[in-house]
């Protein structure tokens, strides 16, 4: 069975100031992560270029993927369906600023992160449905798959392969600077987490 590798993009400008949304680029640390990630894949794939790689259309994911692909000599598909959850009117705010500016929304999301939809944005349920098409694509692939995307997106993909209950999705732990390697077996998915120092 072919492995599926999941990684968030390297640390972004917004990550360090705890802002949600936006389309910020990587920090220097994030760029270092992307380069280390490329080196990890060179070793891990033992020079095999016969892989499928997917990323989003956001700067932080594209920059990470470009660094990886430059080292691996492969190409990627950039898909809008893999863009991070759209936080609508809360775009560019920190969680604290959301709590101050939109206290009711903040509470509602805390109460039900799965169904809460950011005004003019998305809910986790919205994200799950747009990510579904990519899941089929990944499942169909006979080649190893690399997905470089975002926290909410990877929660959905990860939950699918581990058969987590849908309400668990928004709570799953998908840290920065870590690769999650999944190897689907008949009744379960074997998981290895590889921390990569930036
Ligand atoms: O903070 C990084 C980030 O990817 C944001 O852009 C996004 O809004 C958030 O994580 C999603 O995580 P949560 O649903 O826990 O707020």
TrEMBL record:
GO terms for cellular component: cytosol. The active site is at 9 (tele-phosphohistidine intermediate), 84 (proton donor/acceptor). The keyword Nucleotide-binding applies. Substrate binds at residues 8-15, 60. Keywords: ATP-binding, Nucleotide-binding. One of its GO terms (molecular function) is ATP binding. The chain holds residues 218 to 415 of 437 of the full protein. This is 6-phosphofructo-2-kinase domain-containing protein. GO terms for biological process: fructose 2,6-bisphosphate metabolic process; fructose metabolic process.
């Amino acid at each position: 069975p072919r492995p599926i590798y999941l990684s968030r993009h390297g640390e972004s400008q917004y990550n360090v100031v705890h802002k949600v949304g936006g389309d910020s680029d990587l920090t220097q640390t994030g760029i270092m992560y992307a380069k280390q990630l490329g080196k990890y894949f060179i070793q891990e794939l033992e020079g095999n270029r016969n892989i499928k790689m997917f990323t989003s259309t956001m700067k932080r994911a594209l920059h990470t993927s470009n660094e990886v692909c430059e080292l691996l000599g492969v190409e990627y598909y950039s898909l809008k369906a893999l863009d991070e959850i759209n936080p609508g009117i809360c775009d560019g705010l920190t969680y604290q600023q959301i709590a101050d500016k939109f206290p009711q929304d903040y509470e509602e999301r805390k109460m039900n992160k799965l169904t809460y939809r950011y005004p003019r944005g998305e809910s986790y349920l919205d994200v799950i449905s747009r990510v579904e098409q990519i899941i089929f694509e990944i499942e169909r692939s006979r080649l190893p798959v690399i997905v470089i995307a975002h926290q909410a997106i990877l929660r959905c993909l990860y939950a699918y392969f581990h058969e987590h209950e849908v309400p668990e999705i928004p709570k799953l732990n998908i840290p920065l600077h870590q690769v999650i390697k999944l190897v689907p077996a008949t009744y379960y998915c074997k998981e290895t987490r590889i921390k990569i120092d930036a």
